[in-house]
User: What shape does this take?
Amino acid sequence: MTETASWWSLPAAPALLLTGAVLAVAGDALLAARDAGRPRTVAAAVRPLLEVVRLLAAQPRRMPAPDRLLWRSGVVTVPVAAVLSVLVVPFGHRAVADLSVGVVWFNAMEVLTWAGLWLAGWGPNAAFSLIGGYRFVAQGLAYELPLMFALISAATGAQSLRVGEIAEAQQGLWFAVWMPVAFVVYLAGVLAFSFLGPFGYPVGRDIASGVLGETSGVDRLLLQAGRWLWLTSGAAMAVPLFLGGGAGPGLPAWAWSALKTLLVLALLVWVLRRLPVLRADRYVELAWVVLVPLSILQALVPALVVLNR
Amino acid sequence: MTGTTAALALLGVALLGVGTVYGAARALRSTSEPLPAGPFESGVEPSEHAVSRFHVRWYTITMLFLAFDMEMVFMYPWTRVISAMGPGAVTEMFVFLAVLVAGVLYAWREGALRWT
Amino acid sequence: MDLTAGALRAVAARPHVLLVATPGGTAARLAAERRLRLDDLPLARTPAEADILLVAGPDRPGLRPAVDRLWQHLPAPRARAHAATPDAIGPALERCRTDLTRPSRVDAGHSSDGDGNGNGNHEGHKGHGDHHDHGGMEMPAGLPMAGTGPDRDGLELDQLHIALGPFLIDWPTGPTVRLTLQGDVIQRAELEEPGEQLGDGGDVPFWAEPWARAAEGERIGIGQAARRRAAAQLDSLGRLLAVAGWAGEATTARRLRDDLLDGAPGAALRPGVRRFARRVGRSRTLYWLTRGLGPLAGSRARAAGVGGPAARADGDVPARYRTWLADVVRDVDRLAETAPLPADEEGPRGRPAGGEWPSAALARLLPDLLEGAELAAARLIVASLDPDPDELAAAARGVTARD
Assistant: This one.
């Protein structure tokens, strides 16, 4: 019974999202500290947050003949779309708005990053940046369809596009248990639309940060924040889609939501440093020849189960 | 709140946040005079503008993608009516998908999924 | 408290450092990389991201204009320093961080090698073409639009010209490969030799030092040379893994490299090195992502004058990184051997031949291997051969005796 929360959820949802993103950044900093042989302390975990002040204090840069309007709109789109995506993500039994087309809304917001990132790559009129922008489109062609089939698998299992109803439909058994392929493909999709870790292809080190290469100051801050907000939003959405939402013994529903979200987030952050970047020229083939057919078969499973119910 | 009101309000909150960040930068930064900079090209002067008609060699994949994307438009509403429509709905949908996958396999065999 | 002053202190607490290692500056680069790793100061990849420009290694007059151009593109607050030797890295970074907190003089420059080249000539942002803003429709900002050229399929399509090098993260500083791209596929690659623009030939390359000294008659133990070779190959592996985007293992490779150069005993290093070699060597993901890239038959390599691991690997990128891994594991087992270095032991990149260091032949192979490759693949191919900028800049003296 997910209900629409009152007006106070409007600031609360983005605040929770931001908290999750800060925790993810801190977790990533601790893993980086372990790899680099630095002490793992609270100070090490919060050091990356100095980045916020550093970027706010930076002098603006003016590129020769940039496309300022498109650049700026691309940069702003990424974090704003991430915030908009949590409109339909329930926290416990409350969502800002449990839309009847919640899954489609989430999908639509995620696809906005295609436009955002491509524009951010086009805007500065720099070669590496441009290549990065196109890289994200190529990556999108690979990750998007398996991700959509994963979303549809969950929606089919519940015969609803309302996120609250999908969470309720898992009272007996989590979708993650009997739709493991959809779950894994969904998590890979989350990494891909956050363009982090193995899916950091558009901002690759080999092309000097690609889309991020010419951004400085607030623009860079917003794009970076957008990545971690998307990672958090994707982790939060995994809970109602595949992990039974706020259901669980003992604790209140909101606590279960928070706990499950943080566990998914921890898993995603751990993966970031453990894999090389999946270049689109290789990943596209894998995605179309293996992941698309697999995720279609996965979508067939809940369809047959629903028929026999 | 209706869905539309909530969505617009959340958009407002997000844009307000973005505006606040830009405002904070205005207050904090050491100088507002923009630095005349150039694109980073490994320390070499650029010889031309980067914005150009970028030759995407994966354009055939975009065609495949569009075919599937249109199919998704049907599949989202389809999820809601499986029980109501019965086995026919499932058969039709997955036969349609099988046809599309056959197209993918053909494209794969023709080498459309590789571009280097 | 002044808001701006507080912000500047935050910048100085964790500045991003654009590290430029000049050819011949490997020792200084290693000191800088270790320092940045332990102090958690991120490496910047572009001037836009950086707060500090740190030049490590001997001053190269030929590279000065390019370094100054990088500096002009760093947004304030910013600081720059030049550290010629490993010992100068720490003080140079400290001074830069102090400079960052000073609001009045954000354009601070330093030169710790005393010749004063760090200061001065970077005043006045005379950018490229920024003054030609009114140049008309055809040449906005004084630059032409991209031209077209025939594609491999016979189509007339836009071409972009970009350069890899001289300065690019995880790129051997110095050599520049000029690329003609259509989309992200390389149509043509031309190598620009750094040549005489670098100034003098310089010292013996850091990585090949034990072999050069042995050639001059000094007694060098096998263990000592093996330690240097293993560190050199871990340095190359770290670069390859960083270009491949594998953050965790790239850091591991660099930590092991630093431990080796610190003189850690073999027994302490062995488990870590073996675990690293197992993880990377057996990674199916890395193999799948790199197989088939930059195939180089052993015979073709030797015909081009390349010896060492690149020729022994006799294959593609995975063959080369697996050869490095096997070499590192073997060398770490030999750290305690004190017998004198036999004459047939090769250096990290092979033996000098024809009066030049082995990296010169490696660099000459690049254009052929890069044409037709995707841009990311090209970076991986270069990293898997990893020509040493020190060797490219140094005169091949003292080593020809061992041919």
Remarks:
- The mean pLDDT of chain B is 88.
- DSSP finds four helices and one strand in chain B.
